[in-house]
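During the reporting period the student researcher (J.K.) took over the structure-prediction task from the postdoctoral fellow and processed the backlog of single-chain submissions. One of the processed entries is reproduced below for the supervisory committee.
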Amino acid sequence: MDSAWIESATAWIAAHPIAAGALIFLIAFCDALVILGIFVPALPLLFAVGALVGLGHINGPYALAAAAAGAFLGDAVSYWVGRVWGPQLRQTWPFSRYPQWLDRGELMFRRRGAMSIVIARFVGAVRPFVPAIAGMLRMPLPRYLVPSLLASIGWAGLFLAPGWILGASYEAVAAVADRLAIVLGTLLAVLALVWAAVLYTWRWFAAHADNLLARGLSWTRKHPRLGRYAAALVDPNRPESPSLVMLAVCLLAISWAWFTLLATLLASGGPLAVDQAIHALMWSLRNPLADRLMAGLASLGDTAVLGTASAVTLVYLLWRRRWMAAAHWIAAIVFGLVLTALLETAIDMPRPPTAPAGFGFPSVAVTMTTVVFGFFAVLIARELPGRKRVWPYLVAGIATALIGFARLYLGAHWLSDLIGGSLFGILWLLALGLAYRSHVARSFWMRPLAWMFYGSFLAAALWHAPRAADGLLAKFEAAAPLRIVEAERWWNDGWGELPGRRDESDARRRWLLDMQVAGPLAPLQAALEAEGWRVQPQADWTATIGLLDDDIPAIRQPVLAATLDARAETLLMLHDAPPGADGGERLYALRLWPAPVALDDGSPLWLGSTQRLHLARPLDAAALWRPEPDDGEAFDRVRDALSDFAPIEQPHPDTGQPVLRLRTRSTTR
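J.K. obtained the following structure tokens:
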């Protein structure tokens, strides 16, 4: 579906809130129609509608009623189609071409009966077909209408709710945590993409394995000399032949992709333009809440975690005397690690400017995660029944994507390093998988092995990640400023060359940087504390989740961190403010960040922003401190509290707003 069409539809909804009900009705109606429902992107559209409801552009109950009515009438039309056509519906195109569309719905209907009407409304694959099946199988209309109505109302609420909540909290969250939302949203999108790629690749091969096997067998007969080397892979009498053919085809495809990437990088002599662009994007999204989370995820590729799961698996294989499996497991890990280290040494690829020594092409952590999880999937997948065989490969893809994305976010690697590591890891595990599957036909009970491998990995991850996150994060702190300014020049006129606002894409978050401090922050902090200000530690995940707790008093609700040049504020101080006209709670806030330049006398330089915050409670679901215009109240309060430092107040040449400049010394006053 063209994203431009979705954007224009949501823009029209925002501009025509009353007439939008007809469009919302049409979206839900088309999504419920048999056949047409497959092609209608109801989820993103209704998510966007929910966001517009939360932002106040559309009346919430009105949008909910329109979506529920559209879903109910769309299901009713599908029911009527099934009722009129009956069993002949199966002989009609496109069901004659794709009978599985109705087969899935009929299987669910026969198992669940009337409950399938409710369940199917929330399952996209069968949603447009179960009502038609109900009509085709002559389900009585009164028995059909009640669950359909309840399901339509519940579906409309569920599909609108995420966007509704996001829209209602956007003004409060976006001010300080927009980067976190983008990072988490991007991570979820990457995981969904990897999940879909693995799942649909597997399904395609599963559907075409027999055809590939027949073609391979025909080729071996036409080329007897070369074919005898491939005969073991395509022997129709061996049950492993379809799996071997799948591995062989994947091996050829991944080999081509790997060498193409390597040739492109060597020809360019360094990172590609896309590497530079994504690195810059990730650096701009650095956020204190996301930083620690990503550092913990990145540490899952460490030896302490992967090594523990690998050792537990090896011990089990040796205990069960699976000598061939144990030998291939050792080869997968040891030779994979050695080959990756050799490649990293042989290929001199410039590191990202944020990456310390030890990070290169390809990524060792991503390669070894791919090898360990991928080859474990090769070991156990064939022991699983039918479609469940894809699950170990899905887990491998998710684990690799998590670690790769986290390291990309931290700036440890270029995107090419991660793709190269993944491709090389897949290449190696496919080669070993072919060797293992070709020589080992004996199966074994995989359930205890799977529990031991995944369980030991999770246990090691939960123990290691909290301990390794801080150390790993320290390696990727923002670089110290390279530009040096004379202290006297800064005091006289150089201060006007520093930014006057935060560099944000959203104009509402380009807060004024109305304070500059040269020197240590301890004296300034002491002076403010003497005037009733208090320091708030940087809000961590525990404090952030506590925003959902209604029992926590407003005064104890944390103010979320904000960033300047990918750095969170070094000092955040708060002071109670008079209630607003609506009686709502308010705070004065002062945020101080390291400046992008350094002074030649060694004094640290800081940029600050004074604000007045209002406690917002979107949908009464969370408490969020939101910056609001204060007409200089917070600025005046800070200036008065720091009067003993002889501050100078002048308008900034770019913003025209007053900027407070002061110097501190290493001793308090």
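The committee noted the following: The chain has 22 helices and twelve strands.
J.K. will present the remaining backlog at the next meeting.
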